[in-house]
Each structure stands twice: as structure tokens, then as C-alpha cells.
Specification:
Length: 248
């Protein structure tokens, strides 16, 4: 990678660090540098008369240095002390800059998430309006199918089923399946997980049995899909009144 690419990569990495991490590093450097100053010989610094040279005094000097206040009461007079002081100042300025950049980056993320949430709410409301519009037709279609399933749920009616009735039932199951399938192109049913799952289950069940001529398979299909259709009735009705804060 060239230098500009490396710089962009580095800036991308530091931008993803949370502000609290930079604050932690900033605060952690204060006692660390104070300890280094404490270990240095006292002649590395010019101190005011009667000034302390204990760890607490160097902790104060470290705070003044990293924040670039520079009161001047403690002054580095030798190269090593001057170098360490300059390093702490540079670290303080750099970390504070990284902190501000991280705050800006986090604010941008919040703004993006807020906009996405707004778009999600608008999309949900639009799709729910479509669902409410189609709801009477949906419930009528499902109820009609449930009624025909109930007719052939008993063993007696199933035995008396003629070939034409069998084909009519399978045709009605297929029509209901195609109707549910067509809703996917009109309404974003993925907003309601229970509806989309049961719709796929219904379509899959019908596709599995659509060419059968077995009375046992017909009864099995009627039993399974009738229960799914009843669930869909409940789920469609619930979805039409569901508050946006309740969706997942």
C-alpha cells in the first residue's frame, strides 16, 4: 500500500475507537508520566522554593503538562526531562484530537441510524396501509378456503368425495397458495415474521400435494393447511393493528 492508503487505513481504525477508550488512555497517561518524572533525578527539573518532589507533586505536573496549561512552576531543565515533557504534550494533543474525531464519527453513526430508523418507520407505515387495504380480500380468501377444508375434514365427507370435488379442492388450495404468493409482490410481508413463515409453509404444503389423488393425502393437506390458514387470519388481523414499536 502507498502512504496515502496507509494513512486512510490508520484514520479509519482510530475513527472506530470509541471516545471512552481515548478518555481512558488520556487519563491513564497522567499517572504513568507522573511515575516516570518521580523516578527521574530531581536536578532534571527546576522547582520553586519549598516545592514538593513526592509523587503527588509530579502527578500535578503531569496534569498541567498533558493539558498544555504550562503554569511554569515546574520547568524541565535537562534534555531527558524536556524530551519526556514534549512527548507527554504531544500525546495529550494527539489523543484529544483522536477523541474529538471519535465523537464526530459516533455522532455520524447516530445520525445515520436515526435516518435508517425513520425510513424503517415510514416503510412500515406504508406497508401496513397496503395490508389494511387488502385485508378484507385476504380474510375472505382465507375463510373461503377454511370452509372448504372443514367440509372435507370428516371421514364420511372424504369418502364421498368425487374426482371432480377432489380436483376442485386442490384447485382452491392452489388458488389460495397463488394468492398468498402474489401478496409478496404487493406487500413487504417480511415485516411480519409470523405471516411470512406461515405463507411459505402454506405454499410449500400445497406444492407438495397439488398433484395427489390420494384421499389420505387430501385429508392431510386439508388438515394442515386449514390450521395454517386460521393462523394467517389471526396474524393478518393482528398485523393491521400492530404498533410499530412492537415489530421485530
Amino acid at each position: 500500500m502507498d502512504i496515502s492508503t496507509r494513512i486512510r487505513h490508520f484514520w479509519h481504525l482510530v475513527s472506530n475507537v470509541r471516545p471512552i477508550v481515548w478518555i481512558g488512555i488520556y487519563l491513564g497517561l497522567i499517572p504513568l508520566f507522573a511515575l516516570i518524572y518521580y523516578w527521574l533525578p530531581t536536578d532534571q527539573f527546576h522547582s520553586p522554593d519549598k516545592a514538593g518532589t513526592d509523587y503527588g507533586s509530579w502527578l500535578y505536573y503531569s496534569v498541567v503538562t498533558i493539558t498544555t496549561l504550562g503554569f511554569g512552576d515546574y520547568t524541565p531543565t535537562h534534555r531527558l526531562a524536556q524530551t519526556l515533557t514534549a512527548v507527554e504534550v504531544a500525546c495529550g494533543i494527539s489523543i484529544f484530537g483522536f477523541f474529538l474525531n471519535a465523537v464526530g464519527s459516533m455522532r455520524s453513526e447516530i445520525d445515520v441510524e436515526s435516518e435508517l430508523e425513520k425510513q424503517r418507520r415510514v416503510h412500515y407505515l406504508m406497508e401496513r396501509e397496503k395490508l389494511i387495504k387488502y385485508l378484507p380480500v385476504i380474510l375472505h380468501r382465507l375463510q373461503a378456503y377454511i370452509n372448504i377444508c372443514d367440509k372435507y375434514s370428516s371421514e364420511e365427507n372424504l369418502k364421498n368425495m368425487t374426482r371432480s370435488e377432489m380436483h376442485y379442492f386442490l384447485s382452491d388450495a392452489l388458488r389460495t397458495s397463488l394468492f398468498l404468493d402474489s401478496l409478496l409482490s404487493r406487500i413487504d410481508l417480511s415485516l411480519w415474521s409470523a405471516i411470512i413463515e406461515d405463507s411459505f409453509l402454506f405454499v410449500a404444503a400445497v406444492q407438495t400435494h397439488e398433484s395427489t389423488e390420494s384421499y389420505r393425502k387430501i385429508r392431510e393437506l386439508a388438515s394442515n393447511t386449514s390450521e395454517i390458514a386460521a393462523n394467517l387470519q389471526t396474524e393478518f388481523t393482528k398485523a393491521s393493528t400492530l404498533d410499530i414499536n412492537e415489530i421485530t
